[in-house]
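note to self — DONT lose this again. spent like an hour looking for the file last time. sequence + predicted structure for the chain T wanted, 381 res
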Amino acid sequence: MLGQSSTLQTDKWNKLLEGVFLDPDGALPLHEQIRVALRKIILTSLSDGDVILPEMEMREILKVSKSTLRQALMALKDEGLIQRRSGVGTQVTKRQDRTIRQIAVIAPDYPSSVIDQQLLELDLYAQKSHISSKMIRFQRGDSWKELQTRLSFGPEEGGVVLIENPPRVTAELTRVLHEKGYRTVTSTYIDDYQGHFVGADEVASVRLGVQRLKELGHRRIALLVAEPEEYDVVKIRSHAFEESAREFGLSEASVLHCGVHSWESDIPVTLEGIQSLWESSRRPSAVFFVSDESAVAALGWLQKSGVSVPREVSLLSYDGTYLTTTCCPRLSTLIFPRNCYAKEMVDVLQKDFTGYQRRTFPAVVVERETTLQPPTLKPKI
């Protein structure tokens, strides 16, 4: 229900609009620049039921034509942020909830079991909720303008989910989509991210994995990092491992950084990394991985090299996707509730919040066939 109306005085609107800079020669049309500016004012400075400045006065402040301002206001009305009421004027209608009819999921176009599983869970939840979902693959070098042409609905009809895109791509897409009026949510953790996030509690999950390996008796544990370290989440996992090792007194724990970058395959560097660890004079009794693809590749190398897993070395994977059950022996792993991710992402897209949401979920350890108590280790001669 609408709250009490309160007409904001012209001097207050002057203050609200003094930071608005309109560029007639800019990439965005004037009416779109006005829509973006007014949308920000509505969401950050106005309350439900507030009456906005009359069009004539707003045109005088912004120095734009009637048709230009009318286009901007019509777009805000279509988005459900304002509504004209007879005898009252144009009021803010900030709804706490809205029903979305469509979801676009933007994800990088390369093989990934994590992306596959998140897409599956989102699609299943969307079907259950009678929401249409569309997959948009983002390729290296694609621009937001190209992606925009593939969005088949307006901001008032649905939201956008960003999955596992490189951090710079995620931040830029979020900024552009917000300017267009779309609601977004991502599963990619980024420091100081200006948007909603739903994903793993990375620190708690890494600690859980280290703790379980310690409980099994492992002291010489290596974290093999074969994921792009441009991703803040990969840095967090590495740091969390080092902090957990210190907490549990694991002085022989180590981190091996393989040096892979965005859009590169992690398989070659994983094979080099596991060979380096195994041929080391202080080979680990357990290896903890930051992705399932990396763990599966390492398991294959160890088996081809005649190494018995887990009798000679234990392996613990991280993502808990279907890959961990398709190899032999089946990988012990952390598992995340990605079905909960899907539900929470849709919930975030349907509600208004003051500030950005950060919803995280811890993992659970599922022990299968690649973890045992460690063998008696001796320095390699």
